[in-house]
């Protein structure tokens, strides 16, 4: 590893063991093979922060069991689909503390319970969950966790699902669902979860 420091050429007669001095406004970084030197100055430091992922902190949550997805809610909390325990877990990313859970498997309301929740998405007011083994997509109010819409049943027809997983919410309000065992992407209206269309996923080379 070589350390590069900004500055002009070493003056004649100076010692080769002298420590390089970092000049005001310059940037220095440790470089690995194939890495380019970061641009000097404030813009270079911003670019460096954008390109590098650094572990800020980590938490151990003993309540997690096969967590499969996470989404950031508008209030800054994280919602985690805790697939193994069939419920959702809300936690604080600042403290790592569990805030709440809801929709446990033995809930009396069939549609409010989960069997292996997977994909998550949210907007400013609602949370969307792919309930994998119920073959359903569910929409909840973020303020009180009340379910406001549900769609899906096991099958291959329009509006049917076979073990849905990942979710993605488009800016126009379309909710895309990875309909895993049907090998396709299904699209729904996020307002009422009405089916809109689907398109198949072709298998790539082995």
Largest sheet data? 4 strands, antiparallel
Strand order of the largest sheet: 3-4-5-6
Over all CA atoms, what is the radius of gyration?
25 Å
Number of helices: 1
Distance between the termini: 39 Å
Low-confidence region ranges: 1-35
Helix content bin:
under 10%
Number of distinct beta strands = 14
Mean of pLDDT: 78
Beta-strand proportion: 35-45%
How would you spell out the order of helices and strands? EEHEEEEEEEEEEEE
Structural class: mainly beta
Global shape: globular
What does this entry look like structurally?
5% of the residues lie in helices and 36% in strands. It contains one helix and 14 strands; from the N terminus they run ββαββββββββββββ. It has one helix spanning 41-51, and strands at 2-4, 29-31, 67-72, 78-82, 87-91, 98-102, 117-122, 126-131, 136-141, 147-151, 164-169, 174-179, 184-189, 195-200. The two termini are 39 Å apart.
What are the key terms here?
single chain; 206 residues; mainly beta; four-stranded antiparallel β-sheet; 5% helix; globular
Short recap of the structure:
It is built from one helix and 14 strands; from the N terminus they run ββαββββββββββββ.
Topology:
Blueprint: E1 2-4, E2 29-31, H1 41-51, E3 67-72, E4 78-82, E5 87-91, E6 98-102, E7 117-122, E8 126-131, E9 136-141, E10 147-151, E11 164-169, E12 174-179, E13 184-189, E14 195-200
Antiparallel strand pairs: 1-2, 3-4, 4-5, 5-6, 7-8, 8-9, 9-10, 11-12, 12-13, 13-14
